[in-house]
Design goal:
Chain B: Pfam families: BPD_transp_1. The complex is a heterodimer of chains A (272) and B (277). Chain A has 272 residues and is α/β, with parallel strands linked by helices. In chain A, 39% of the residues lie in helices and 22% in strands. Chain A has eight helices and ten strands. Chain A is globular, with a radius of gyration of 19 Å. The termini of chain A are far apart. By secondary structure, chain B is mostly helical. In chain B, 81% of the residues lie in helices and 0% in strands. In chain B, helix 9 crosses helix 10. Chain B starts with a helix and ends in a 9-residue tail after the last helix. Chains A and B meet through strand 6 and helix 3 of A and helix 9 and helix 10 of B.
């Protein structure tokens, strides 16, 4: 145990370094450039939002971070080293939940814990702990098809949080939720992050969501995706619903909204 | 002590109005379907009995059922049913044991796909029974050639469905498994197969009646025991009651076998939205 926490301390020394990463889809040579020389440092335990118009390649950047698609040029370095493929140190919540439909909520959560090598009784304890955390108590034996979209997404979040990844990647995880559930989930995620000390990279196109959640926000340009601005969110660490009426919050949201709007307009006009 | 009295009493009182509302549509459905079969059976029985239909060409249902009953008591029916079932299920299982793994390998290996895809494209629509004379020449006139014939005809729907089911799988569950650190061979068992299971089962459900048909047809063509053979023998002796007894046996056997596989599907796909309709 002591060795593990010592290891963690060492890991904590670094965050994520994205160095000159470009990515294109389609045939090599004449594909579509999705990401153009992205460089970005994300600090340890930082909540970082990637914000941009649809098609700006923010999801692509997240999949590259996750190791789901190979890095074509440039390099991504995490505390565990250079990213070459998916790994349990970087867990992801996908936009469409990606639960295993043939497993119950509990078995979905247990799957990741088993792969992470937890002992059987520890697996059961943690699974229950995280199911309770996302308020799915009583639905442990339900299959995803029996749950609403919001409940499925909470199950997916429990599954991902249970393995306690150092880096949490989230691809518009609340996009499919109704406005109320969305608000509740945002508050809970921020609270969980405050307690658990993780690095979070969160993709969204919702300005308010980004300002509410993030420490820093990268605003990406329309295709080919570049990072145009990096904004520090200078708001209190503990954020509740009341912050939405805070003048600083509103001012910052408007400022960011104008920057995103420029990119969206540029996108509709076509490049240059 | 007193509780045991309360239990049945409330049970008897409470559900009485509820099922009338909830189960009624399905019960009505079943009743209508059963009554169609009963009406047909009654038309058969009375049509034959009162001379509207020639009793030699169409013997009354009751006569057929009496024959079935005596054959059942003497054990003849059980031997024929058992043989037909044995041939159909053996061939079906062999086809599944070859077809499912081959379908999976085809979806994962280009070389295997290149080799088998044209063979399956040609074989799928081909009337497989045409191979029977060759199988008789190559094997025997007993069980082997019949079982191989059945396996051969069941193989194509199974391999095609498995290939289709394991190709173009939804990538998200696979990516999730990878992000939890699952290895590729684990993903095959833990993700690919459960995801393809509905389509593999559909392939099996298409293949099973094909296997039953092929069994009865090979038995008819080759003679000997088994339902098909018994029916042909009865036909040669102008025993129309025997022929119709065979038809009733085939109907019952087919129904039971197909329903069993449907039941298995519902059990295996308990997680699937289709099961909770």
């Amino acid at each position: 145990m002591r060795a593990a926490s010592a290891q963690r301390m060492e890991d904590a020394a670094t965050g994520i370094a994205i160095r000159n990463v470009s990515h294109s889809y389609g045939p090599a040579g004449h594909g579509v450039l999705a990401l153009d020389r992205i460089s970005l440092d994300i600090g340890d335990c930082e909540f970082h939002c990637l914000l941009g118009p649809s098609g700006c390649g923010k999801s692509t950047l997240l999949y590259l971070l996750g190791g789901f698609i190979p890095v074509q040029s440039g390099q991504i370095v995490t505390p565990k080293g250079v990213v070459t493929g998916p790994g349990p140190d970087r867990s992801i919540v996908f936009q469409n939940f990606a639960l295993f439909p043939w497993k119950t909520v509990r078995d979905n959560v247990l799957y990741g814990l088993k792969k992470a090598g937890f002992a059987a009784d520890e697996r059961a304890r943690r699974a229950q702990e995280y199911i309770d955390l996302v308020h799915l108590t009583g639905f442990e034996d339900s299959y995803p098809s029996q749950l609403s979209g919001g409940m499925q997404q909470r199950a997916a979040i429990a599954r991902t949080l249970a393995v306690d990844p150092r880096i949490l990647l989230m691809d518009e995880p609340f996009g499919a939720l109704d406005a109320q559930t969305r608000r509740v989930m945002q508050e809970e995620l921020r609270a969980i992050w405050r307690r658990s000390r993780k690095t979070v990279v969160f993709v969204t196109h919702d300005v308010q969501e980004a300002v509410f959640l993030a420490d820093r926000i990268s605003i990406m340009s329309a295709r080919p995706g570049r990072i145009e601005h990096i904004i520090d969110v200078d708001l209190p660490k503990d954020r509740g619903e009341e912050i939405l009426e805070d003048s600083q919050f509103i001012q910052l949201s408007e400022q960011i909204w104008r920057l995103v709007r420029e990119q969206a307009i540029a996108a509709t006009r076509g490049a240059h | 002590m007193t509780m045991s009295h309360v239990g049945p009493a409330t049970k008897g009182a409470a559900p009485a109005p509820a099922p009338r509302r909830h189960i009624a549509p399905r019960t009505v459905d079943t009743l209508v379907q059963v009554s169609v079969i009963v009406a047909l059976a009654a038309f058969w029985e009375f049509g034959a009995r009162f001379g509207a239909l020639n009793p030699f060409l169409l013997p009354p249902l009751s006569t057929v059922l009496v024959r079935l009953w005596t054959d059942l008591l003497s054990g003849v029916v059980l031997v024929d049913l058992g043989l037909t079932l044995y041939r159909a299920l053996s061939g079906f299982l062999i086809a599944a044991l070859i077809g499912i793994p081959l379908g999976i390998v085809m979806s994962r290996s280009k070389a295997v796909r290149w080799f088998f895809d044209p063979l399956i494209s040609v074989g799928f629509p081909m009337p497989k029974i045409a191979f029977l004379p060759i199988f008789i020449l190559w094997f025997d006139i007993y069980d082997t050639s019949k079982i191989i014939m059945v396996a051969f005809s069941c193989f194509f729907p199974i391999v095609a469905a498995t290939y289709a089911g394991t190709t173009a799988l939804d990538k998200w569950p696979i990516w999730s498994a990878r992000s939890f650190g699952a290895r590729e061979h684990e993903i095959l068992w833990e993700v690919h197969l459960p995801m393809a299971l509905p389509q593999i089962l559909t392939g099996l459900q298409v293949a099973l009646p094909v296997g039953m048909i092929t069994t009865v047809v090979t038995e008819m063509l080759m003679g000997g025991r088994g339902i098909g053979g018994a029916m042909i023998t009865a036909g040669r002796f102008a025993d129309s009651v025997g022929v119709f007894a065979g038809i009733v046996e085939v109907i019952i056997l087919g129904f039971v076998v197909v329903k069993s596989l449907e039941y298995l599907r519902a059990r295996l796909l308990i997680w699937h939205p289709e099961t909770r309709r």
